[in-house]
Specification:
- β6 and β7 form a beta hairpin.
- 46% of the residues are buried.
- The protein has a single domain, classed as 3-Layer(aba) Sandwich (UDP-N-acetylmuramoyl-L-alanine:D-glutamate ligase), CATH 3.40.1190.
- The strands form two sheets. It has a nine-stranded mixed sheet with strand order 5-4-1-8-9-10-11-12-13, sandwiched between helices. The protein has a four-stranded mixed sheet with strand order 3-2-6-7.
- With 298 residues, it is of the alpha/beta class.
Length: 298
Amino acid sequence: MNGLFVGLTTLDFLYLVDHFPDRNQKIVALDSAIAAGGPATNAAITFGYLGNQVKLLSVVGNHALSQGIRQDLANQSIHSIDLEPTWSESPSVSSVIVTQKTGERAVISLNATKFQAKLEKIPSDILADIDIVLIDGHQMAISEAIASQAQAKNIPVVMDGGSWKAGFEKVLPFVNYAICSANFCPPNCQNQADIFEYLKSYSIPQIAITQGDKPIQYVGQNYSGEINIDLINAVDTLGAGDIFHGAFCHFIVNHFKNAAQPILENDFREALIFSAKIASQSCQSFGTRSWMKKNFSI
């Protein structure tokens, strides 16, 4: 199947440490890695790893660091479509510190705020042969246009709601699956019930909120429930939500002929359980790619 992933691409510098450094302290990392990252990018790589064809629509640019991103995406067989190929400034770079004992991470990053692409940069045939679209909100105008086109073509749209971003309200009417994190909080929402009601007001058929190792909460048309998460020994939680989204896209388009239509509760639960299993597997290795090298049952 073919997926289009729209949003942020970064260059991630990851460091594994046995403890966070104190103020003015220098420490030696236990391990390190450099990889292309970002919500849409990690989801795209997961989708491709699971056996699908991938297009990634983001800004990479023409900086020296951009070449590292391009090579890494090519190594992952990702068809990268650059919205600003002549952009000469540095791409978004993330510095990530992961604590070995808990798997918790701290991230310092510059998102896509400084390089919002123009609508005319969207290729005219971008949705040709596409079976599913994921948007992460980091290229909001681009995302709105593509989500609208996807709905018109009956292509399912998955929203990565990692956090609320201005302009999401213009995209929500075109979303089929809103998969949000516990950090996603639209304006004037005070609790999870408010968030579900806010998203339902846009007639989104399927909505889920992940909460790390706490139960996933979900609602659909005339149903709601929760899914418990298996306890694991987490080594690194970086990108787990992104990987969840890539796995979710894989399950949806490979199990339902008309994935743009509302699905039954058992089907939605099965998709969420599958995605949580993949995300949990990723948390048991350092970095966002090591889990792919280990044998496990999908």
